[in-house]
Amino acid sequence: MSGIVDGRVDPAFQAVREIFEASFADGRNTGAAMAVYLDGRPVVDLWGGIADARTQRPWERDTPAVTFSCTKALTATAALAVAHESGTSLSEPVTTWWPEYGVEGKAATTLADLLSHRAGLPAFERAVTATEAADPAKMAALLADQRPLWEPGTEHGYHALSFGWLVGEFVRRQTNSTVGEYVRRHFGEELWIGAPAHVAEQAARVGFPPAAEQAWTDPGPIDAATIDRMSRAYRDPGSLALRASTNPVGSYNNPEALAGGWPASGLVTTARALAGFYRDLVGGALLPPELVSDAIRERVRGTDAVLLLESAFGLGYMRSCENFILPDTARDTAFGHPGAGGAIGLGDLENRLAIAFVPNLRRDWLAGDRRAYDLVAATYDAL
Question: Whole-prediction pTM value?
Answer without folding.
Answer: 0.97
